[in-house]
């Protein structure tokens, strides 16, 4: 995990919906990150800290993309349309995580 530099901290909000809300036990969190950190790095941190049980997944097995059935929105725009997981964060953003897998 990166060491936080207070001179370049950005506060971001992450909201959880559907089964991801049950997995984390939270509606939303606000976390500080270093300016220039990637979305993927932030999601690694979120998965490691907030996903309970630890076998719950936000990222796929190789941890380079979202797990199947997980939608990620950046400021309400799908990640695939807004620069992908490797985009750098240079200002405060909202990340929305939604599980599209559900019972029938």
Automatic annotation (TrEMBL):
Pfam families: Urm1 (PF09138). One of its GO terms (biological process) is tRNA thio-modification. It comes from the Archaea. Keywords: Cytoplasm, Isopeptide bond, tRNA processing, Ubl conjugation pathway. GO terms for cellular component: cytoplasm. InterPro entries: Beta-grasp_dom_sf (IPR012675), Mopterin_synth/thiamin_S_b (IPR016155), Urm1 (IPR015221). The keyword Protein transport does not apply. This is MoaD/ThiS family protein.
